[in-house]
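REQUEST ID: PR-0412
SUBMITTED BY: lab tech R.K.
PRIORITY: routine
TASK: structure prediction, single protein chain
INPUT:
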Amino acid sequence: ISTRDWSSDVCSSDLAVDEVCTHDALDEAERKNDDALSRMDDIIIEYQLPAHTVGFGVKGAVTWSPTPVRNYRDYKRTDFGAAELSWLWGLNRGVITPPGLDEQWLVSLMHTQSDMDDLVGEFEELAKALRG
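STATUS: complete
OUTPUT:
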């Protein structure tokens, strides 16, 4: 591929993103994330889980610590075993989030409300299994 072809592809990609990734589309993805986080907060309270949610824009997370993480020491005190269990629980139910020492996700423009309902639903199933 020549440099000329590559730069043409990059420009075409930029134009396509501008058409698809509108302010309204991003606002909708953020709304879906905020709704999921709120519903998960309700589940955490109902089942008295030692966890809390963290969200920023289209990024969300369940942190398995009863108090907010403010620094590295706080982070090291989170329950990474519970985080791994939560990730595996979702994975075994078709909800695939990035692996790691905490439960995180990003909402893309392609995620539907049904996708977010699946995320919240499997989290509630986990809560029931842990506390039920």
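NOTES: Residues 32 and 113 are 7 Å apart (CA to CA).
REVIEWED BY: pending
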